[in-house]
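Pipeline run #58 for the internal structure catalog. This entry was flagged by the ingest filter as a single-chain record with no existing model, so it goes straight to prediction. Upstream metadata was stripped on purpose; only the residue string is passed forward. Reviewer on rotation: M.T. Logging verbosity set to normal.
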Amino acid sequence: FSVQTMATIGYGKMVPESLVANIMVSVEALTGLVGLAMVTGLVFAKFSRPTARVRFSRVAIVSNRDGIPSFQFRMANMRANRIVDASAHVVFARQEQTLEGEEMRRFYDLKLQRDRSALFIYSWTAIHPISDDSPLNGVTKEAMESARAEIIVSVTGLDETFAQTIHARHSYKPRDILWGRRFVDILERGPDGTLSIDYTHFDDVAPIP
């Protein structure tokens, strides 16, 4: 009887007769309606919220770009629709010791050559030039490992279809960073001139000759 009341089925086999039974039916009916509305709202919010689906390269590289040593990684939009006004934020984190001898984790922003993309459609290679004022200047793989360093990437943008903000995050540990390598080209142009991405080589790198 309670299940039929809360689910608003109402087969009609049992009906409340006393005051107590009617009060119980009122409470159960209200509980059933509120519960159904909450579950419906939660399910709708879960499946209607867009996901970023940004693919990050499995490794990052440190190699020359236009004659300047640069930290590089690439991203790709795996969605069918575009990400509008996408922005990338890169942070270098490592353990350091203060003058007082305390050990703490410090964060340094890594400036990118291009940290915004008006339309994130295909792939995006993020490049941080390792200049004299870069936090990565003079840093080696061994130094990063000893400092338990990590490079954290955060990408935000606006979903073109749902007009909602989406977010994706990835991090690179010292074992994920390769020196003296370059990314394999993944852009292909079809007979009609349209560009496509060959994701089979998205994570591939090659030695610099």
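catalog note: Helices lie at 2-6, 19-48, 141-146.
catalog note: The mean pLDDT is 87.
status: ready for reviewer M.T.
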